[in-house]
């Protein structure tokens, strides 16, 4: 028997009355990709954040008190948690546009209610408890004029990390709080990466663009994936954007000292190249954007007088004799290029 908590209020943007239906359960980790992950948020606040966000259709608070928000298409199934179920579950709140007296069960209010959704290309979503036994499924309606396959509901056989460690048995928290790149559900996304800033984690989707089989992408011994090293005038913030557009999951880590030789061999011009070492403010530690690529500490080869206490970003300088060095930079200093990691 499901435990039901019933909460309702009025959605300010639409005429429709919006209701949050709360049950014990857990999003299916294989088909669910949270849009935002919040720590230090109470369950009531978690529900309120989803309720106030027009893009949010479902929220989940795990047993370790982490709040997950899901937009349309990011969640397909929610596992019902029955009495005696040992699943590492939590509490799920599902948004519907209906307001009636308190029902006797979640299914009596959720089942078959078509909810208007105003974010292209989705125009509606409906919860059903009869499609998959033991689950609430979410069916999405799409604007009829679009045939774009980008919006196919995600249904991978199993979520994996890019080093091929199968993660089917992991919980939602284990998967999405690792900070590691996961394989995506399919075209047009090759992967996704949880990125945390000041206690809020968002999901960065990685588009298919460059692949490790392409001519300008190179392997690096001892490191998964490959790298590209475009020689194009840029600054640090633009390098981050360009790396995303090329299908990267982040600016490159220098995994060890030996990597400098590989980078030197593959670069086309000397100069300063943005890398994935940064900090959030002048009082924070320097951290790699992709720390799982670190082999040992020998790749952290600071130039004399560095790190500069006033800067937040870094580049590797191939214009020095001997082993290249790492120096700090501003967000707008002109750089010769960037080194970008491509997952596979």
From TrEMBL:
Annotated PROSITE patterns: C_TYPE_LECTIN_2
Pfam families with a match to the protein in the record: PAN_3
Signal peptide coordinates: 1-17
Coiled coil ranges: none
CDD domains hit by this protein: CLECT
Alphabetical list of SUPFAM superfamilies matching this protein: C-type lectin-like
Keywords carried by this UniProt record: Signal
InterPro entries given in the database record: C-type_lectin-like, C-type_lectin-like/link_sf, CTDL_fold, PAN-3_domain
Protein name: C-type lectin domain-containing protein
Location of the C-type lectin domain: 226-309
Species this chain originates from: Caenorhabditis brenneri
